[in-house]
Specification:
Blueprint: E1 11-15, H1 26-34, E2 37-40, H2 46-49, E3 57-60, E4 63-64, E5 67-68, H3 72-84, E6 89-93, H4 103-112, E7 117-120, H5 125-132, E8 145-150, H6 163-166, E9 171-176, H7 182-191, E10 199-204, E11 212-217, H8 221-224, E12 234-238, H9 247-251, H10 255-261, H11 264-268
Parallel strand pairs: 1-6, 1-7, 2-3, 2-6, 8-9
Antiparallel strand pairs: 4-5, 9-12, 10-11, 10-12
Helix pairs in contact: 3-4
Length: about 270
């Protein structure tokens, strides 16, 4: 197999998507198959790791809340050293490398070392979570904006966000790493003016066989997450759009829509 875009001594930051191997891009699968060493996150599941060729070395560099196997500086050093040794390096990241994945640090470290580095995008967790709930993330007239935020804060630090901006009613909020901060998110958004009745989704293990979707209102968000384990990847979605998953098809069957669909001759009769 030719590797014109993956010569020895090159790093690819590859998005592994939300977990389902069928949601990998064809390019991601090709790069994984061509890798000689793969540094992977903790959230990259076994089914995707099974795609790594038998002769390639696997290195876990996963970071979970409160449990870091490697700090970021160490990860930067490891991928650069592997590329310097002439290996084809894949840095395999859950979701999309451009969204809350510490990609900037790895790009900078590679650039300082003069190592060629490129990005292969992946499906981000918010897209998979909305798909799991059969819900849109945007909706004409109700949700004109989609905002990605992370609720992960440094230990003992407050969750510092522009709550007034986030409380705008025409925005959908996709909140990554939000389980622990769900109560704070709920209280701060309501205090900033977001309607307590705003629909919310809590999606656990999006795209995986153990996927769960919990539906409710913003005022009950802290209660919705009580049954969620702290080891399960969880994404929160807040906004009017995600409350519309059953109403979209019904709208097409309204009397007004039916009238528009009638043949012109029938309307004149």
């Amino acid at each position: 197999m030719p590797h014109d875009d993956f010569p020895p001594g090159t790093i690819w930051l590859v998005g592994a998507g939300p977990g389902d191997p069928e949601l990998l891009t064809r390019k991601a699968e090709r790069l994984i198959a061509a890798a000689e060493i793969v540094f992977h996150d903790a959230l990259v599941g076994p089914a995707i790791l099974d795609l790594i060729p038998p002769g390639a070395k696997r290195v876990s560099v996963g970071k979970r809340s409160g449990r870091h196997s490697k700090d970021q500086a160490t990860i930067d050093t490891l991928i650069v050293e592997a590329a310097r040794s002439g290996q084809r390096v894949v840095r395999l990241k859950g979701g999309d490398p451009a969204i809350f994945a510490r990609t900037a640090e790895e790009l900078s470290a590679s650039a300082r070392a003069g190592i060629p580095v490129r990005i292969c995008p992946g499906i981000t967790a918010a897209s998979a979570a909305a798909a799991a709930a059969t819900a849109p993330l945007t909706l004409r007239g109700l949700a004109r904006r989609l905002t990605f935020v992370t609720a992960h804060a440094r230990a003992d630090a407050p969750l510092d966000m522009d709550w007034q901006a986030l409380a705008t009613p025409d925005a959908t909020l996709a909140i990554y790493m939000g389980r622990t901060a769900a109560g704070t998110v709920m209280r701060q958004l309501i205090a900033a003016g977001r309607d307590p009745a705003t629909p919310v989704l809590v999606v656990v293990n999006a795209s995986l066989p153990t996927e769960r979707v919990l539906r409710g209102r913003l005022s009950a968000l802290s209660f919705l997450v009580e049954t969620v384990s702290d080891t399960d990847p969880t994404l929160l979605i807040v906004g009017e759009a995600v409350g519309q998953q059953h109403g979209l098809a019904q709208a097409e069957a309204t009397p007004a829509a039916a009238t528009r669909a009638q043949p012109m001759a029938e309307r004149r009769a």
